[in-house]
Amino acid sequence: MKEAFDRFLGVRGAAYVRRVVPEAAEIMTWITDAGGIPILAHPYWEGLGADKTAASCRTLVDQGLRGLEVFYGTFSARQISINLNLARKFDLFMTGGSDFHGTFKPDISIGTGRGSLRVPPKLIDHLRQAAGRSHPIKMNEVPCPPHDDF
Length: 150
Hints:
The protein is mainly alpha-helical. It has helices at 2-9, 24-33, 50-62, 77-89, 121-131; strands at residues 39-40, 67-72, 93-97. The chain starts with a helix and ends in a 19-residue tail after the last helix.
């Protein structure tokens, strides 16, 4: 395996292709044009604190962000609170995730995750309603759900 990476896939390999990272605004346009809802997942994974997360959210909202992962199996109560407040502040859809990516994480399955992860069904219903449209979603066409219940 190492030889394959060294000879073919590594930076000096015969089949190496430089990674292209599109801009966030471009990605959100693709998602919206496909009828999806751009959502920021795991906002703490990059080691951002609350202030930088809020500034990043503002920038991403200006570029088309429509949702924020509020509930996640490894989020502390403080992180959930910060994300909940950001979702309210920027009128974003709230989501949650178990981080299920297949069977290589035996303690995680679809809909259940680490800790006491519980995504309120209302959040899923609001996303299904918004994403079930046959044409691209315009930000002013689909009101975000009321946040008073959370």
